[in-house]
């Protein structure tokens, strides 16, 4: 591509790493730190170069019928970059490549292989990692990175609406859903980058190479080894020999006279009888004796119960008399009096 003289003046000591033709004389040139947009001379405007430094904080993308607008937010201003809609994805890839390089996310020789946007999800596939950003903006500092060096598995679960990308890192699976119509492009780009990084030719080879096997040695060490120095509870022939202390106890028992055992039993019986007698006396002492106050209370309670009983009986008699009067009135009414 022929570089316009005005762009060469703007470059200074920098080199053009990539460029995208926007049609006619317009072109976008990408350096390590800036994006330079050249607009050719028109009927109402002169040629010009607009620089977009790669140290922007946020990036948003909006697509129209003919144009794609990329808005770069800096600390003190925002700048819009409009390109034809069929050049939008390519410009976005190169722009993010410069941003990631300036931010130190990617190495000098690490390129961007693809950028995929699904609603509020943005995926960036580089030569050495997968970057995932979730949010209302296309890109900012809040993103997650998954290094290809830590990948332990890759799989794709196809569905009618979306395809789940199962990206395992250090044995932990990360599921990313991509719309069915865009999933093949994501799968192709991600596989190509991973295959090149791990020097394999197929998905099976990749999983066989990076897959981790369970550590059986650790389980064996945690198990109980019969030869680990645990003595059995039941001994062998050596355990049949008694200790010296046991021998001394046996000798003392043999020297004790027979009547000594009788005296011990007699003493034990006497002690038991004494304890039983003491318990009986204690039980007798704990029983409180009846007092005059208790008798008075019982008499008062009996008197109250008797009065209540008499009152109830009188009330019943009154009710019976009233019933008799009512029955008599009813009978007279029936007779027509």
Automatic annotation (TrEMBL):
Species of provenance: Haloarcula nitratireducens
Skewed-composition ranges (Low complexity): 267-287
The DUF7115 domain, residue ranges: 1-106
Location of region: Disordered: 210-302
InterPro entries linked: DUF7115
The protein's name: DUF7115 domain-containing protein
Pfam families to which the protein is assigned, alphabetical: DUF7115
Biased composition (Acidic residues): 213-225
């Amino acid at each position: 591509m022929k570089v316009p003289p005005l762009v060469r003046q703007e470059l200074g000591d920098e080199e053009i790493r990539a460029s995208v033709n926007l049609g006619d004389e317009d072109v976008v040139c990408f350096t390590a730190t800036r994006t330079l947009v050249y607009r050719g001379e028109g009927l109402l405007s002169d040629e010009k170069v607009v620089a977009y430094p790669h140290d922007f904080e946020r990036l948003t993308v909006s697509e129209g019928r003919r144009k794609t607008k990329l808005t770069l937010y800096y600390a003190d201003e925002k700048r819009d970059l409009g390109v034809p809609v069929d050049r939008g994805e390519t410009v976005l890839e190169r722009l993010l490549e410069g941003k990631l390089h300036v931010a130190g996310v990617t190495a000098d020789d690490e390129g961007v292989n693809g950028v995929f946007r699904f609603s509020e999800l943005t995926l960036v596939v580089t030569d050495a990692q997968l970057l995932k950003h979730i949010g209302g903006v296309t890109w900012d500092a809040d993103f997650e990175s998954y290094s290809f060096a830590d990948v332990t598995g890759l799989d794709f679960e196809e569905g009618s609406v979306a395809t789940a990308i199962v990206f395992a890192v250090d044995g932990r699976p990360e599921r990313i859903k991509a719309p069915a119509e865009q999933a093949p492009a994501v799968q192709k780009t991600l596989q190509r980058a991973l295959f090149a990084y791990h020097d394999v030719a197929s998905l099976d080879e990749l999983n066989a190479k990076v897959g981790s096997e369970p550590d059986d040695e650790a389980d064996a060490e945690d198990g109980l080894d019969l030869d680990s120095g645990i003595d059995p509870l039941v001994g062998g022939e050596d355990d049949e020999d008694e200790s010296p202390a046991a021998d001394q106890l046996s000798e003392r028992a043999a020297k004790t006279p027979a009547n000594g055992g009788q005296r011990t039993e007699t003493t034990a019986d006497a002690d038991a009888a004494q304890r039983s007698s003491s318990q009986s006396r204690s039980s007798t002492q704990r029983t409180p004796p009846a007092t005059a106050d208790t008798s008075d209370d019982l008499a008062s309670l009996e008197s109250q119960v008797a009065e209540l009983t008499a009152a109830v009986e009188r009330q019943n008699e009154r009710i019976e008399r009233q019933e008799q009067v009512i029955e008599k009135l009813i009978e007279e009414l029936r007779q027509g009096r």
